[in-house]
Amino acid sequence: MAESSTVPLPTAAAVRLSGWLTHLGVSPLAFDDTLSLINPLLTVHRLNARIVGRQVETGTATTLVLQAGPAFKGLQPGQFVIVGVTINGVRHRRAYSPRAVEGHPNRIAITVQRQPGGVVSNHLNEHTRVGQFLEIEQAAGSFTLPSPLPAEVLLIAGGSGITPCMAMLEHLQRHFPRTKATLVYFARSRDDRIFAKALDKLAASWTGFQYRAIDSVANTQTDDSGRPSAADAGRAQQVLSADLLNQLVPNWTKVPAYCCGPTPLMDAARAIWQEAAFGNWKDGAAIKARLHLEAFTPPKPSGDPHARHEVKLTHHAVDKAFEAAGDQTILVASESAGQGLKHGCRQGICHECTCRLHSGSVRNLLSGERIDGEGQTIQVCVSVPMSDVHIESMA
Ligand SMILES: Cc1cc2nc3c(=O)[nH]c(=O)nc-3n(C[C@H](O)[C@H](O)[C@H](O)COP(=O)(O)OP(=O)(O)OC[C@H]3O[C@@H](n4cnc5c(N)ncnc54)[C@H](O)[C@@H]3O)c2cc1C
Ligand code: FES
C-alpha cells in the first residue's frame, strides 16, 4: 500500500456534498449512515474497514488485514490507528500500530496481542472473521522515522512492541534499503516472538539489517512485586544494557533510536540514554532527544486505593457524578461507573479525552505534575483525582 495518499476525487466530492447537506440540516453521521447502506467503505466521516485477511502469529497474537475505503489518508510507519468495536452493546476504542500492505491501496495490517482480561484484544483475537467490518480512524502519532532519513536507525522492541518497529523496518527495506537498521527484540521465547519468520527472512535478504533476537523475561511485564512471575523462574533474564548496545551499534548515542515495549524495557532504555547524556555535557540534550519511546499502556496510578473522590462531570450542560478511587484514572472510574468518557489511545497521546477542569486537582501520570485551577485542560486517561473534581467534557 502507498504509505500516504491524497484524497481521491470521489471522496472529495462526497465530503463537499456532505458539507452542503449539513447546511440543510443533515448531520455528517446521517450522511455516512446512508453511504454505509450502499457500501460501508464509502463513508467519509466515520471510517470503516473490512477484514480481508486473518493470520495467527503466535499462541496469543493475531494479525488482521483491513481494507479501508478511499477516505483513509494512509499512514506513516510507526503511527497508530484507533479501532472501534462494539462488545455487548458497549463501544470500545483501542489503538493499534498497523503496517502498510504493499501493492494494495488503503490496506493495512494490525497485529493484536491478547492481554490477560483485556476486553478488546481478546475480542479481536477470538471473535473477528474475514468479511466483518471494524470502525477505524485516520492514522495519528509521532513515533515515526525522522525526515530526512538518517543513514542508520536503532529499534528496540519487547513483545507486542514489535508492531510499530516492523512497520518501520518493512518501509525501510522497500523504499530505503541503503539505510542501516538494527533491531533488538526481546520476547519470552521464540514461540512468543511475533513476526519471528518474517524477521528471519528480512535479515537474510537485507544486508543493511542487523537483527538480535533475545529470549528473556527480564524486560517483560512483572507481577506487582516488580519481579518476573513464578512461571518465569529459571528463564533467561538478559536485560537491555549499554554494553549490549556498544556491541551491536558502537555509535548508538548518535543514532535515532525507537523503543516500544513493556514498562521495564522502556524504563531501562530511558535510564541508559539518561546516563549517556549525563556523561556527555556537550551533547547530552541531543543524546536524550534521539531516544523515542512509545508505550502501549499508561503508567500505573500509585495513589491510595482506599481514597474516594467525587468526579462531577458536565457534558452538554447535563451534570452527572461518579466516584474515583485514588488509584484510578478518571477515564477508568467513569467506565466502572458505566459512564464511559470519549477517549482514543488511553495513553495521553491523542488528546481525544481532553476535558476542562472547573475545580479540584488531578495528577498527570505522564509528567507527574499536579494540575489545579479553573479552566485548565486535562487528559482524563492519564489523570488521577487528588480531591473532588468538577470537569467538563469537551467532546
Ligand atoms: C499508540 C498505541 C499503539 C498500540 N499498538 C498496539 C499493537 O500494535 N498491538 C497490540 O496488541 N496492542 C497495541 N496497543 C495496545 C492496545 O491499544 C490495547 O491497550 C491492548 O490491546 C489491550 O486492550 P484490551 O481492551 O484488551 O485491554 P483492557 O481491557 O483495556 O485492559 C485489560 C488489562 O490489561 C492491561 N493491559 C492493557 N494493555 C496492555 C499491554 N499492552 N501490556 C500489558 N498489559 C496491558 C491493563 O492494564 C488491564 O489490566 C497500542 C496502544 C497504544 C497506546
Ligand atoms: S485517550 Fe488519547 S489522550 Fe486520552
Notes on the structure:
- The chain has helices spanning 9-23, 28-38, 119-127, 162-175, 196-205, 242-248, 263-278, 284-289, 330-336; strands at residues 47-58, 61-68, 81-87, 90-96, 99-100, 107-113, 133-136, 152-158, 180-187, 209-215, 257-260, 291-294, 308-315, 318-325, 354-359, 361-364, 370-372, 376-379, 383-385, 389-393.
- By secondary structure, the protein is α+β, with helices and mostly antiparallel strands.
- The strands form four sheets. It has a seven-stranded antiparallel β-sheet. Strands 10-9-8-11-12 form a five-stranded parallel β-sheet, with helices on both faces.
- It starts with 8 loop residues before the first helix and ends with a strand.
- The structure holds flavin-adenine dinucleotide and FE2/S2 (inorganic) cluster.
- FE2/S2 (inorganic) cluster binds at residues 343-353, 379, 381.
Q: What tags apply to this protein structure?
A:
single chain, 395 residues, alpha+beta, Rossmann fold, 7-stranded antiparallel sheet, disordered N terminus, binds flavin-adenine dinucleotide, binds FE2/S2 (inorganic) cluster
